[in-house]
Amino acid sequence: MAERPKSVWSSISFWKRSAAWVTGFSTILLIWLTFDTMSQITMGSDADLQKGVTKRVPAPTVINYHIDYKMSEKRGHEVPVIGEKEPFFGKEWSPKEAAKLLHLGKLTIQAKNCMNCHTLLGNGAYYAPDLTKAWLDPAWSDKGSMMAMTGKSTREEAMAEFLQHPSKYPTHARMMPNLGITAEEAKGIVAFLKHMSAIDTNGFPRNFGKEEGTTYAR
Ligand code: HEC
Asked: Which of 23, 93, 103, 144 could form an S-S bond across to 97 if both were Cys, CB 3.0 to 4.6 Å?
């Protein structure tokens, strides 16, 4: 009686070889992706900003520039556009000062656990508005209501005032609690929010500022 030919699917050496190839290919792919990601998330420098080189994560000194949010037809969503220089809390910040201010903002945001209610760069909760692009929220512009409400004449001062006394400026059904934030900490947070809004997040959060009621206080 002739032996039936063995199917390739039941051959042990076939599966061993396949496993080795798949593991090898995935390893190379992961190494390549790691380097590709590193270059995308590495912070730019002040020199990049001065030369107009666009980095996905700009230098802390981006707080010295006007930031716009414009539709990119090519990419199908909005992207942050870094514009002309503008004073931030009345001055231009050196790279050292800007980094220190941002650091204070980051520490305060962590210490007060803003992510308990808000989302930052995809992490956190949706009890309160997403903060990723909060700096660009029209409510804080000269056409919005927050400058008049807080009696301040710049976006950064209005935000800092709100952060120190949120319960004085209630707008939605939900109110942000008073977290005991100092004037200096508020400045740091606003710097952090401005820097974060300048990060190219591939249009996340989607539909920011377009749908009625998704943004804060119109
Ligand atoms: C207990 C929940 C809670 C915590 C914690 C909290 N917030 Fe809020 N926050 C809110 C709510 C609710 C609103 C909406 C308030 C309103 O519309 O009147 C808000 C609004 C805001 C806004 C305005 C949003 C916009 O789109 O313009 C900013 C900025 C903000 N919070 C920053 C912070 C920061 C920074 C922290 C941490 C230091 C923080 N919040 C912690 C609940 C919270």
From this structure: 93
